[in-house]
Amino acid sequence: MRVAVIGGGLTGLTATLKLCQKKHQVTIFEKENYLGGLAGTFKQNNWQWPLEFFYHHLFTSDKEVQNLLNNLGLGKKLFFKQPKTSIFGQEKIYRFDSPLSLLKFPHLNLFDKLRAGLVTLFLKFIPNLASFEKIKAAGWLSKNYGSKVYKLLWEPLLKAKFGKDYKDIALSWFWTRIKKRSQSLGYLQGSLQTLTDKLVEEIKKQKGEIKTNNEIKNLDQLKGFEKIIFTIPTDSFIKITKRELPLAEQKKLATLKMSGTANLIMVLKKSFLTDGTYWLNINENNFPFVAVVQHTNFIDKKHYDQKEILYVGGYYSQDHPYFKISKEKILAQFLPYLKKINPNFKKTDILNYHLFANPNAQPTRTINYIDRLPAIKTPLKNVFLANMQQIYPQDRGVNYAVQLGLKVADVVSQS
Q1: Rounded to 10 degrees, what is the CA torsion of 173, 179, 185, 188?
Q2: Integer Rg of the chain from CA
Q3: Separation of alpha carbons 235 and 179, rounded Å
Q4: Pairing between strand 25-29 and 41-42?
Q5: Residues contacting residue 71 through CB under 8 Å, at least 6 positions apart
Q6: Considering the domain 2-80+187-256+373-414, what is its CATH architecture?
Q7: Which single residue of 11, 36, 247, 388 has CA 20 to 30 Å from 396?
Q8: Residues 192/56, Cβ–Cβ less than 8 Å
Q9: Domain boundary assignment for the chain
Q10: 157 in helix, strand or coil?
Q11: CA pair distance 30, 209, nearest whole angstrom
Q12: How many other C-beta atoms can be found within 10 angstroms of the C-beta atom of residue 220?
C-alpha cells in the first residue's frame, strides 16, 4: 500500500516508521527544510549538542516515548534529573516543586497550604472523571483551593496560557497537568534531534522516502497514493482539502481554537537564574511571558561551549504581534521584566539570541471539547488526520505525539 504522510514532526515520523515496518511504501512530505516539527532543533558553532527551538523535557510517566527509545536502541541515552522549579510572584522567586517548598511559601497561611496540598493530591491520584470535561477549571480551582490560592497560583497561569478563554478551560485539562507531572525530568543526550535522526535512519532502512522543502497545497499533488495521513495543524488541513472536505466538517474543525508560542533563546555570558532554578513560572498578571527556563541549570553548559542558555517565552493568540515583529522588538519588551526577576541582568550579558515562534502550538481545551474532538478517519475516503487537537485531554508533548503516530498507523493499516 502506498501511503503519503504530510508533516515530518514526531507524529509523522513515528507513523511512517511503523507503517514501513508493516511493509507499506510510505513517503513523508515536509514543507520545511528540517524534520521534527515543534521538536526541531538548531546548533551554533562550537556546541556539542543541538538545542530545541522550544523548551522540552520528558516526565517519568511518558511511557510511550520511553518504549520507542528502547525499541530504537536509544534507551541508555535518556537520563533523568530533579532540577529546581520555582515561581516568580510578589516580586520574588520562590521554590515550588515539593510539599516542603509549599510549606515554606510565605504568602499563604498554614490552612491554605494544607488545603492546597490535599486538593493537589486528590487530583494527582483520582482517575479521570467524565464530569471534569464539563466543569470550568477556574471556578473549580477557586472553590476547592480557595480564592487566595487560586488568585496567587492558578489564575495568572490560566490567563497567561489561554488569554481571554481562560475562564472556559475545562478541569480535565488542569487535571492532566497535575496527573502527569513528575519531579524527575528527562532529557536525551544530544537533544531530541537524537530521536529524530534515529527515526529517519530507520525509515530509510525500511525503504521509506522523506521529502523536505516539499509543501503540499492540494490533494491533486497526492494522486497515486492509496492512503493519506495529515499530521499538520487543522487550519492547514482545511486549506489543503477545502475543495473536497464537506463544508459542515470544515465548519466543525474551524471551531477548534489554537494558541501559538513565541520565545527568545538567549546565549548568555553568565547565569540568569542564579539560585539554580531550571524552570520559573511567572505568576504575575502583567508580564509579557509566562516561563523563564534556564536550560543550563538542567543540562551541563559544557555542551554549549560553556555558555548559559535561557528560554523566555509564552503562549499567545494567533493574531498576536509577536508573530509579526522582530526579535529585537520582542527583546526590548522583555528586558524590563527580566530585570524585575534579576535586577543585575544587563543587555550586555547577552552574547547572542534567537527568536522562534509557531502560531499552532497548543489547543485551547475549553469545556465539552470532547464533543468536538476530530476523528482520525475524516469524511474523505482514505484520508486521515492526526495532530495535537486529538491528544485529548493533554494539549501537547513528545510522548503524545509518539502515541498518536502509533495510533494513526494502526488505524490506517486496519482500514
Answers
A1: -70
A2: 22
A3: 30
A4: unpaired
A5: none
A6: 3-Layer(bba) Sandwich (3.50)
A7: 247
A8: yes
A9: 2-80+187-256+373-414, 98-182
A10: helix
A11: 11
A12: 8
Alpha-helix runs per DSSP H in 296-397:
327-341
339 contacts: CB under 8 Å, gap ≥ 6? 345
68 exposure class (CB count in 10 Å sphere: 0-12, 13-18, 19+): buried
Q: Does domain 98-182 have CATH number 1.10.20?
A: no
Residue 78 DSSP SS3: strand
DSSP string computed for 248-299: HHHHHHHT--EEEEEEEEEEESS-SSTT-EEEEEE--TT-S-SEEEEGGGTS
Q: Residue with C-alpha cell 522588538?
A: 329
Measure the CA dihedral 5/8/12/16, to 10°: 70
Bridge partners for 294 per DSSP: 310
* Ramachandran angles phi, psi of 132, nearest 5°: -60, -30
The SS3 assignment for 129 reads coil
- Which residues is 281 bridged to in the sheet? 87, 291
Contact 115, 310 (CB under 8 A): no
Return per-residue pLDDT of the chain as tens, 415 residues: 999 999 999 999 999 999 999 999 999 999 999 999 999 999 999 999 999 999 999 999 899 999 999 999 999 999 999 999 999 988 899 999 888 898 899 999 999 999 999 999 888 888 776 778 899 999 999 999 999 999 999 999 899 889 899 999 999 999 988 877 778 999 999 999 999 999 999 999 999 999 999 999 999 999 999 999 999 999 999 999 999 999 999 999 999 999 999 999 999 999 999 999 999 999 988 899 999 999 999 999 999 999 999 999 999 999 999 999 999 999 999 999 999 999 999 999 999 999 999 999 999 999 988 888 899 999 999 999 999 999 888 878 899 999 999 999 999 998 8
**Crossing angle (nearest 10°) for helices 398-414 and 63-71:** 70
